Amino acid sequence: MSQECQNLARNRLNPQSNIKVQVGFRVMEKFLEDLKTIESGQEVSGVRVCHDDLTGTSKLEYKDELTIRYNNGVNQCYPLLAFVHLPSFNLSQDSIEFGVCFVDQEQLCYVTITNPSYSESHWSVEALEPIDHSKGEVVIEPTHGVLEASESFTSKNKTKLAVRFIPRSESNFEYNFMFKGKLHEEFRFLKVKASGSYDGQFERKL
After folding, report:
1. What is the per-residue DSSP string for 98-111?
2. What order of strands is seen across the sheet that includes strand 188-197?
3. Residues near 4 by beta carbon (within 8 Å), at least 6 away in sequence
4. Do residue 13 and residue 97 come from a single domain?
5. 183, 175 Cβ separation under 8 angstroms
6. What is the pTM of this model?
7. Whether 195 and 97 share a structural domain
8. Whole-angstrom Cα distance, residue 198 to residue 206?
9. Do 169 and 198 form a contact (C-beta atoms < 8 A)?
10. pLDDT digits (tens, 9 = 90+) for 88-123
């Protein structure tokens, strides 16, 4: 407990009386510092990461102690425990293979990004290598978004992403994309592979 809280928590208790003590937990900027420290492999006193292998989610566990000191020298200690759920997201698949595609004809596939955690997640996606648009184009839409916490069946914790590919030449293509979050979510990667061809047998009839 901080010195400020200790100063505010001094009260007079008359005989045969009681007083209600409210204890709160507030997430402050230090939370991000703790998270960075733990991710670097160091320990933070009273803080540890708990992983749920079933859901693939994590949370920070904070442990502290509330001490009530009386003027007769008696102390009473009460354990305090709080959890902060960390956001995360998963992709329905980590690779897409369009196969052989007719040049200048658009191909379309869908991938779903899902937040299984109890914390809102802000995500974005970026290409890991420069894309030569003269040879081919690949676009993921949308490129960013917000996934609500997975709190109920009505939560908007999923987004359907459209992956569009247009070959501009008779070449083999391989693109790598990285999905990242604002709060140290684990990176997710998507590989897109395809080939371009002028052979009419690969032309999709409209």
Report:
1. EEEEETT--EEEEE
2. 95-102, 188-197, 172-181, 121-127, 144-147
3. none
4. no
5. no
6. 0.77
7. yes
8. 17
9. no
10. 999 999 999 999 999 999 999 999 999 999 999 999
Structure tokens at 26: 């507030």
- Tell me which residue range forms the domain holding 177: 90-202
Task: Kindly state whether residues 78 and 153 are assigned to the same domain.
Answer: no
Identity (one letter) of the amino acid at 68? I
Mean pLDDT, the chain, whole residue set: 87
What's the CA gap between 119 and 148, in Å, rounded? 7
Residue 95 DSSP class = E
HSE-CB for 156 with a 13 A CA cutoff: 6
pLDDT mean over 162-171: 94
User: Which is it for strands 136-141 and 158-167: parallel, antiparallel or unpaired?
Assistant: antiparallel
* pLDDT tens for each residue of 12-57: 777 888 888 888 888 877 777 888 887 777 888 888 888 888 877 8
